[in-house]
Amino acid sequence: MSDHCTSMRHTPEYFDSLFSGSDDPWQFKSRWYELRKRALTLACLPAARYMNAYEPGCANGELSADLAERCERLRVSDGSPKAVAVTGARMAGFPHVQVMQEWVPLQWPDEPFDLIVVSELAYYLSAEELDALIARILASLSPGGTVLACHWRRQIEGCALDGDEVHRRLGERLALPHLTQVLDPDLRLDVWCHDLRSVAQREGFA
Q1: Which site among 44, 131, 155, 177 is 20 to 30 Å from 148 CA-CA?
Q2: Max alpha carbon distance in the chain (Å)?
Q3: Yes or no: domain 2-202 corresponds to CATH 3.40.50.150
């Protein structure tokens, strides 16, 4: 969602308005920043497959489609009804993917996940809402589960938090071992997991 945060109150209606003119309002399908970010996100997941994953704030489902290839079961959600409709159509070929309308952190599924992906979402929240989101993550993360967060680092007009502050609070309050970080002028990506084995170690080659 990068540089499109505005001073408007971020409500489902606000996000619906972004989808009124396009099913890809952030140009996820065409911008190299977005294509590269998704490739980095997928490459930084330490396991090849996950049993049950959750991606809140799925927008138009571009990342969801890639995650679906790596998960036995995947739940994705968004607060915008239009985003949910777009993603639902995109996921029609993935019967193991559930698309829900959920406004996080107020609404959150009551089930365990071994992977939770928070991408370009948390800077829309207040500090208090972010803390509530982190509590939700911790309550639903399976033993040995993985949390991946990726956010735009630059200041965003109308948002109380930037990507660096989001990740600082995540790292502090998740209190999980830190496995991976990608940091450049535009984005920050962090992975936390109780299992600190490298990819090669997980495969028995190190």
Answers
A1: 155
A2: 51
A3: yes
